[in-house]
Amino acid sequence: MKTIIYIALPPQPDGALQIAQERGGRLEIVNHRGPFGAADCLAFAPATAVGHFRAPVPARNEAEAARAALYAIEDELAQPVEDVHLVLGPRLKESVERDIYVVDRTLMKSWLELLSKAGLSPVKLLPEQSLYTDIMHPVDLGGHILQREGNRIIGIDAGLPDQAREALAGAATVPSLQDGIQIIRLAERSATHPGVNLRTGPFAPPREKKQGVSAWRKAAGIGIAAVSVWTGTQILEARNYNYAAEQLSRRAAERYAALFPAAAIPADIDRATRDMLAVAALPGKLDFRTSVAALYEAIALNPDTHISALTFDGSAGRLVVDVQAPSPETVDGVATFLQRRGFQVSSNALEQSSGAASIRITLELMP
Prior knowledge:
Largest sheet: 5 strands, mixed
Low-confidence stretches: none
Distance between the termini: 65 Å
Number of helices: 8
Strand order of the largest sheet: 3-2-1-4-8
Shape: globular
Mean pLDDT: 81
Order of helices and strands: EEEEEHEEHEEEEHHHHHEEHEE
Structural class: alpha+beta
Oligomer: single chain
Helix content: 25-40%
């Protein structure tokens, strides 16, 4: 029986791989780093480094769907869309909503280089959230906790202070998992949940090239069949896309007219709805859970960024955090993300060297 290697990737490029090996129906932790010989590989990307969203994505094909998904979550990203790698989950029955997974392109490249150095080349690299989209309660994965926030699955660092962790994920009902259990739980979960593969587009694994006339004949036959199917399905896909878009627009207009009977329906109802939701979401008082959740989401989207100190003053309505980042530009990305979430953000440098910057960020409510 062929050996299967499972790899849990680190949230940082310079972290260590966690490896488990399944052979003869037995799953065990591997402490050495190879060689592993002939083996199938499956890698898991940590939820603290991969963003998960769910949004309506009406489209005629996957290329259009990817562009629509990127537009749908653009305002939620703390970095330019050109710097992220996006993958869509499978289509949902009777819904235009899709699961959307995004990861920093540089971090994705670092993971593949780290795997290559260990002599590993997994065909699939699954974000942890794609294995747990159906959860309703927090899941302890040792180093971090998976939790549902609305229609999203987020990762919460288990190394947070008790007060912050309990505010984000609730009080823990069971002790944290021991080292090594995380990879075993992910391996077992992947046996019943297919997940979503991040190895697409520029990160797709290299394919073996087939040689000989028979391979060309097979490819030509497939091509002819594909053209026949394509010409027959384009009209159907276009009609389905137009119907879905019309249905969404009609329902949005009806809902808007019901909520605001005397107001004219905006030309761009999507933008108007997002603006209203952003204003409605602003709390009247700075809340610890809301502000810290937004802060750690911003930190998770910026590699090599760490929190060294955190202070919350409820009476003053202020959250002060000391951040260590590779550059001031990285901290600007964190601040921009928090401002989009409706916070007033100010920062000042504490220390700065050639390899890192220490900056203090203050969060308050918008006046």
